Structures
1.
Amino acid sequence: MFKSPTYGMLHIEQIPDKILTFYMDHEKYDAPVHIIVGTDSQNFDDTKIVSVVAVICEGHGGIFFYEISRRALIRDVRTKLRVETNDSLQVAETLVETMENDKKYEEMYLNCPIAIHVDAGNSRNGKTRELIPELVGWIKACGYDCSVKPDSFVASTIADRLSK
């Protein structure tokens, strides 16, 4: 189940309706609407993983939905990033399947391609730098645009905050 500060508890299949409402309410601004999926995780006794779907109208706010799951402790940074990326791709695929199967989403789907944000950065001393080509290649091969730090705010800010 996903949670939303605006809409409460939702099944993932209900999210496209909420995105469509947001999209239609914000058409008057003639500003791009972005649908972005990002995931981050934190280790405790287990690994807490938070996947976020953010919908943003440039200059006019946004909404978001998130799902929290817990898995056996993942200590390896490579494995964590692969799990996070896989979770983001699964969320994106479910949204795409829902939107492709209903004509009412067609305009929104064509105008708001889904992007994936990855919580990996190019810092010289960072542990994630060397994984970026692999993760970006994987995401692009699946048909999505991709951003990494410092541009991956859905994963590195929203999901990060909810995972702590």
2.
Amino acid sequence: MKTFKILTLLAVVVILSAFAVKSIGAKGINGGGYGIGDVADDIKLMNVDGTMVSFSDYKDAKGFIVIFTCNTCPFSIANEDRIIALDVKYKNTGYPVIAINPNNPESKPGDSYEAMKVRAREKKFTFPYLFDEGQKVYPVYGATKTPHVYLLQKTEKGNVVKYIGAIDDNSRNANGVKVRYLENAVDALLSGQEIEITETKAIGCSIKV
């Protein structure tokens, strides 16, 4: 009887372990939230110019380069010029940058909406810089860092997640970049090819709650 109970318990553990591994695998190395192939919900967030921005506003877009970033993280600051360059390079091909600040300004006053407006003006941001008020959007995506990238492709099903992770392989030093993960992913979509690397580990500061 005791042996039967032990075997039953072991069987349950094995089943639960397999389920856990499957669940983790489905979401990849970036944890919870959206995984590759998921359809991302539309957003409606305040831009630094006072307007509300949604994916649905972009009728001619082929997809979106969604980047969770902020004013204060050294990694985000190191990537600002790269983010501007990405928007300039790809928005006319149908993949505009949508930047979202996920940080709680009560924890990080430098990431307040007013501070965002100042930073966008100083850096001459060419893209929307949206405030995730109440921190409702970033948990849905599963973003954990700033910067953290989600490349979406517009399809009949909706905006499908095609790449998640880092902009490139050197978050601190633009001159040291050897592999441009995000650019390679966008170029693959534009040429109708498969993306070779669909997930990388986002390197940056933790999102402040």
3.
Amino acid sequence: MSSAAKTAQKGPIISIMVALNCEAKPWVDLYKLKKVANTPFELYAREGVDIEIVVTGIGALAMSTAVGWLAGVSRHVRRVWLNLGIAGHAERALGELVRVHAFIDANDLKHYYPPLTAACKNQSEALLSVNAPTSTYPEGAMVDMEGLAFYRSACMFSDSELVASLKVVSDNQENSVEGLNAAKITALMQPHTDPVDKLINSLITLAQKPQLDDIRLELAHLRRSHSQQQQLNRLLARAAVLELHADISEGQFSDYKTIRDVLAQLDLQINQTAPVLAEYGGAKNG
């Protein structure tokens, strides 16, 4: 059993989202998972191992729907989200594993920058998500169909620090996407079980950071709506991931009269502390 599987047994659920069965196979085999659901999406899991794999199908709509479905199945579970799949790139070698450091929407060219808090030794690249398969490669970026939909959807249910995407280069200017088949895709993905396992462990470590329960108790007297409570939970969880225990100190909010002011201050402190990436062209969004 892999180190990630051992670590995950008492931690959060690791939800791996892939578009195709052939992309999932190396990790289904690695974690010895079994198919436990076939509709509306194929779900692989195993008792005693908090790792699950969902085969979403191709395209942004399928990916975003699958993320929402999985989050809805067990709404109170803390999750680490990981998207694995293939992507094209003009110049990178076939089979290279690349981390995504920026997601680009092909429709309006907006950029979304995930905080790369979890350790990963692989090189990173921006990812342009398009609506249909293409052999046209953007300059200095990978291209796929599901990456942006995954990131935006997963961030609705988890802290952005716990959402990551890794892509394996499947086609380039010398090797057309038309030449791909299931066996070739699995062969390209297979060599990367170890670095993916290491990233999963790094994400798990972030998810298991001690929570800021003292701050939660300090704010118990302030009235809040259900949505404000959810926002507070998300902000405190993210602050814990970023290890802001010293920055957000007990008694800091003793003079605050409304939960709205607390939320605004927490959001400000977190955004000032969160890792900032150099922009990859265009304006920063998301």
4.
Amino acid sequence: MEPYASLINDLKQKTEKTLKHLKEQLGSIRTGRASPTLVDTIRVDYYGTPTPLHQIAHISVPEPRQLLIKPFDGSPQVTKDIEKAIQKSDLGLNPQSDGKMLRLSMPPLSGEQRHKLVAKVKDLIEQNRVALRNERRDANKLADQMKKDGKLTEDLCKKAHDAIDKELKVVEAKLEESFRTKSKEILEE
């Protein structure tokens, strides 16, 4: 095993965290269809504690453009708290409540809205790309430090830099694929 293997493993763990974070960010961006991940980032004031919506309610998709949110605790106050949290969110949706459950209807997106959402996705991808570049820079600095401390030879340091670049190219390809997939979801009618 190469002496810099732990360095590459650390880099892989960091890039996996970055990709997971991106997936969460992209899940909260609206497309033409309803998806439970759309409300994943919403926090509800549940008895004084900000709680993720999915922990206090069952979220289902009865129709392609509708979310049904049914609180586990059937109290009308919890339903009102969920309604407030959804209205405060940046989703731009207004829930209909019958006192026991909420319905979120997704109106069709206009062409302009779709293009704004694609631009937002592009910005998120770029932010994560910057984070990946920072992780690569840190890994390269660590490899250089290992060479300086005598833990790596010149050749092994070069191999480490190459392995770091190779890993980042793989992750950048995943970022690009995420962008294409999400953009396609947003732009399809």
